Amino acid sequence: MKKLFVSFAALAMVFAVYSCRETEKKAEDMEAEVENVMEDMEDAMEETMEDAEEVVDSMGNAAEEVVEEVEETVEN
Fold this sequence. Notes:
By secondary structure, this protein is mostly helical. It has 1 helix and no strands.
């Protein structure tokens, strides 16, 4: 009976160690995935900011053209 109990305890320890290793591996995989998502999000934010700058520049140029046309119309 004592051998059975000791064997069961040893088996339980093996499963616990194995489970911890699996959990650690999953945590590392999850960390890598989060880093990838953050990098992708950062790239998307940079692209969005560049697009926004282009839109603002285009709107500024269009506004300047409108002002010039209004000034020409007023002068004539």
